[in-house]
Amino acid sequence: MTTGLVTHPACIDHVTPPGHPERVERLQAVLEALDESSLPGLARMTAPRAAREALLRTHTAELVDRILLAEVARGQFARLDADTAMSPGSAEAALCAAGAVAGAVDAVMSGRIGNAFCAVRPPGHHAERARSMGFCLFNNIAVGALHARAIYGLQRVAVVDFDVHHGNGTQDIFYGDADLFYASTHQFPLYPGTGSSAERGIAGNIINAPLAPGAGSAEFRSAFDDLILPALETFSPQFVFISAGFDAHKSDPLASLRLVESDFAWATEQICAVAGRVCGGRVVSALEGGYDLDALARSAAAHVKAMIAGSES
């Protein structure tokens, strides 16, 4: 089956302050790497806006309203925390970023596509139920996961996160529900300070595989082989999501893991293989971090090529 590429022009309109690493050029670099001339087989889809009810499955009404009702003057920024800012286009971008993941779920469940990558920003995995933080406004991947459960009656849903930073927001939202599985490889210690192996969730449904600064391919792949992939297969989800951050790349300026493009491709292949065995290959991925533009573009392309191979197998 076909792999979908879901994005929206509004995601370019989320502007961050000068010098901020989560900048417009990130998404532009990814989309250029996934250009039709490079990957002609992708089904290119425009993201819908997330419905309010979809956001409220994931976040408090207070947080949703804080984002959607924010008034930001042209050329100005509203600070949500020291790292997280909104511009006049940010609320629409956040709606489309979250809506992309929910829309990708709809397309997979309808059989239009086999799996999908959502090329969106702002990213999402640091956004907790009641707090935006860490460059993230809404938790895009969690919105999609809870949409899959609510709309399609799926019970067990899993997220695998290989961003270099721990997805504290997704963990926060999933922690108390035994039917929501979250697994993460990440540098530790590092922002946001969560993600120790002792954080296990209400029923062992949280799997953290922290990696020491300087760790590379061998440590990353061992974490997947020894911990994450067996736990994912045992959980036997009905839908698998990937928080696809590429800031564990050796060239990334915000951390110090030593991964390369082939590591992200390998992890994607392994996740898709498990999904093929347990849930008919249903996989939706969403862009998280990655701040060296060249490394980000190459890594995203390697990730999507692995998803295409997974949808065809």
Q: Could you explain the architecture of this structure?
A:
There is one protein chain. This protein has 313 residues and is α/β, with parallel strands linked by helices. The chain has 9 helices and 10 strands. It has helices at 24-33, 52-58, 61-68, 90-109, 140-152, 168-174, 217-235, 261-278, 293-312; strands at 3-7, 43-46, 78-79, 85-86, 115-118, 157-161, 180-187, 206-211, 239-244, 283-287. The strands form 2 sheets. It has an 8-stranded parallel β-sheet, sandwiched between helices. A two-stranded antiparallel sheet has the order 3-4. It is globular and about 50 Å long. The model has no long low-confidence stretch (mean pLDDT 97).
Short structural summary:
The protein is an alpha/beta fold and 313 residues long.
Instruction: Find the structural class using helix and strand composition.
Output: alpha/beta
Beta content comes to 15-25%
- Please summarize the sheet with the most strands: 8 strands, parallel
Secondary-structure element sequence? EHEHHEEHEHEHEEHEHEH
Write down the overall mean pLDDT. 97
Uncertain segments: none
Radius of gyration: 17 Å
| End-to-end gap | 9 Å
